[in-house]
Design a protein that fits this description.
Blueprint (H helix, E strand, L loop, with lengths): L2 H11 L1 H12 L5 E7 L2 E7 L2 H11 L2 H6 L6 E5 L2 E2 L12 E2 L2 E6 L7 H4 L6 E2 L5 E2 L3 E4 L5 E8 L2 H6 L2 H12 L15 E3 L21 H8 L7 H8 L3
Antiparallel strand pairs: 1-2, 1-3, 3-11, 4-5, 6-10, 7-8, 8-10, 9-10
């Protein structure tokens, strides 16, 4: 089996590992949006809990089903933020609960990956809002994501909006390859950690502190079930 098939198979054989990770990463009760990207088309679904999300992935990411329907296996993206409400068809993006920032590195990130882990160090902005350690993961063929938890009240977010916070940190660390379209986007989605890119067959693995790009890519070639412990260790204390 290729990596994508191993990923889909693990949703059954490693169900409890997926459940533990998704409960911890997404929360037990949440409203999010999950997207299945089939080349030029995207299927959008609301999802409100781990069990529902796993069932959606087992159905839409089933290689046999997709082959029978002459479809490619889909990319799997999940909304970065939880939402308090929906408008019927989709979540109400204005109701997003802002508990992190996402940095997306689309280009050659050789210069940026070592710097991503500097975000693990606590940092206070002008509003004295505490940021805790970032977690970086391989998100595609060459791209990376950095998930950067924040602890800010609604009043603090009004004073320094999300986009401004992104820009400040870009300037602080001098990122070279960051995608600025992500900044301040409440509807933004990210690749599901530990899922597999259907074209490159690389797994969305977590970048370990001090790890070389060569090591990241080598690990990404060998599918492994999700491990919340590794995510938690790399995320740092909140």
């Amino acid at each position: 089996m290729n990596n994508y098939e191993l990923f889909h198979n693990s949703l059954k054989t490693n169900y409890f590992a997926w459940q533990k990770f998704l409960d911890a990463w997404l929360g037990r009760n949440y409203l999010r949006e999950v997207l299945f990207g089939y080349g030029g088309s995207v299927v959008r679904k609301k999802t409100s809990g781990t069990n529902q999300l796993i069932k959606q992935m087992m159905y839409f990411a089933d290689p046999r089903r997709n082959l029978a329907q002459d479809k490619p296996n889909p990319h799997i993206w999940v909304s970065v933020y939880k939402f308090r409400a929906d408008n019927g068809l989709r979540p109400d993006y204005s109701s997003a609960i802002i508990d992190k920032m996402l940095f997306d590195f689309d280009a050659d990130v050789a210069e940026d990956v070592p710097t991503i882990h500097e975000l693990r160090q606590p940092y206070n902005d002008a509003m004295s809002v505490q940021y805790s350690g970032a977690t970086a993961l391989l998100s595609g063929r060459k791209g990376f994501q950095a998930h950067y938890p924040i602890n800010a009240t609604e009043k603090e977010l009004e004073a320094v909006p999300l986009r401004d916070r992104h820009i400040r940190i870009d300037a602080l660390y001098g990122f070279q390859a960051v995608d600025e379209q992500v900044h301040g986007d409440y509807a933004r989605v990210c690749r599901l950690p530990f899922s597999v890119h259907p074209v490159s067959q690389l797994q969305a693995v977590i970048v370990r502190k001090g790890e070389s790009l060569e090591s990241v890519y080598e690990r990404a070639k060998q599918f492994q079930p999700p491990g919340w412990g590794e995510w938690e260790e790399n995320e740092g204390s909140k």
